[in-house]
Amino acid sequence: MTERFNRIRILTLMIGVVGACVAIATARPPVKPVNEDDWFVVKLGDQQCGYMHSVMREVKGEVRTQNYMSMQIARGAAKVKIAMEQEYRETLDGKPLSFTNTTTLADTPMVFRGEVKGDKLVLSTEQYETKRTVTYPWDPEVKFSYGQMLAQRERGLKPGTKFTVKTYDPSLKTDGSVALEIEVKGREKVDVQGTMMDLHHLVTRMTLPTGGLGAALGGGAKKPTDADEEPATGGMTIESDLWVDEDATPVVTTMDMGVAKVNVYRSTKDEALKVAEPPELFLNTFITVDKRIGPDAKEVVYRLSLPKDSSMKIPDLPTTDMQLVKRVNDREVLLTVRRIDWEKLRRLKEGAAPGEKQAAYLKASSMVDINDKKLKRLGKTAIKGATTPAEKADALRKYVTDYITHKGMDVGFATATEVARTKRGDCSEHGVLLAALARVAGFPSRGVSGIVEVPSQYLGGENDNAFGYHMWAQVWIDGQWVDIDGALRQTDCDATHIALTVMPLGEEGMGEMVGSLLPLMGRLKIEVVSVK
Questions:
Q1: Single residue among 264, 283, 302 that ends a domain in this structure
Q2: What is the pLDDT of residues 490-502, one digit of tens each?
Q3: Of 219, 253, 283, which one is at a domain's C-terminal end?
Q4: Are 318 and 343 in a shared domain?
Q5: pLDDT digits (tens, 9 = 90+) for 169-207
Q6: pLDDT in tens, 503-515
Q7: Domain boundaries, position 217
Q8: CB-neighbour burial class of residue 296 (10 A; exposed 0-12, middle 13-18, buried 19+)
Q9: Phi-psi region of 204 (alpha: psi -120 to 50; beta: other; left: phi over 0)
Q10: pTM here?
Q11: Average pLDDT over residues 281-286
Q12: Number of separate domains in the chain
């Protein structure tokens, strides 16, 4: 069903990157006391979808910055609101002290609080009555909003100027910094919503972090070298264009994300808060193919490609127990997707115990906090009466499918703790709840973000052959990762499930979870080579 294909986590990451770029560009020479107040209109393409508000003040001998972003999009008939609020404390010479990052993707906000203590960052996450705290090494080169402003002021706006600023945002990467390269191109005439302005053109490049098992383990753990055990995610570079005035105040920021072009314009408060019809971000992400596969296929070979003139390449896609990847070149791969042998799994009376490499996928995290009392109760209830690994996995899938009673697209990306209480969501919520209950039941688990054939009854008759972006789960059974889809009611996942990235569902940031999807959104082409 159409409400099960989730794009909200991609959009949130896009806005997070734009916000980081805008923050670094706010480089006016500071005055004493610091007193800045800026409003921005946020658009997807030409359609206004929200606003950003940034306030910087000097308070009690330190600089405090508040950034707030609110936006709304349409997903079919549903409307989804996303909100992000950031608060930073820095010394007058730009050294980070602490921050609070509040992200609302569903009903209940997720709050990140970070405090810099020497060479350590103490990071806590809070939702409902649950609070988790992790300590990471702190990069002394990281700068928050005010420190970034001072760095830009030092370099100026001379054409050809290049420099790098390190930033930190838990929505991009939890256990370390992210570098943003900045290049000053020169002066240009720019159309700013109907008014021509003479502005300085800057280009920024941010390389998204590469996620993996280290992020899942938390605490800066070393990632394994066994690529088959944990496929990497992220790693792509996102380029943005900014146009700033003589004081280096950002006036226009643009970022082409394939599925949507994000445009941010400096504006008045009244313009920023203008109520607008939210833009559609659903149907335009479907990928049409030349033939329909159906649910009975045992093995399908696909050719995935990007346009030949594309400057991007297809990221390294995960090889799993269901999927074999063969790279043809930077812009083309062949995938063989073969169904798991469930007949063999059903004959298994007791599976092999998880090894050391799978231990991380049994742990509690912010997304799947298996220490939550309600999740514990649900996980035990779900497998009651089941004895074999296959029976338990099937029971978990069916329980999650039935438990989420409001299957709607008006939820962004909720944690398992929240889904357990609201019983609401689409494919993302089915995936994270299934992964959480599987861990409670003793199965190592992780999420998969990819694409799947859209059931024909949900395409409105416009196109019977299309794939849509989707999320499901994998559980570890007797030495293999087994794909299970709560949203599409499939314990035995069909061969239209194409994995684009594996999500450990540990303490990784959004950039680490889904960064490798960004080069593909709006650009990916699929050819069905063969079907068995």
A1: 283
A2: 999 999 999 998 9
A3: 283
A4: yes
A5: 887 788 888 888 999 999 999 998 888 999 999 998 887
A6: 898 876 555 566 6
A7: 7-283
A8: exposed
A9: beta
A10: 0.76
A11: 68
A12: 2
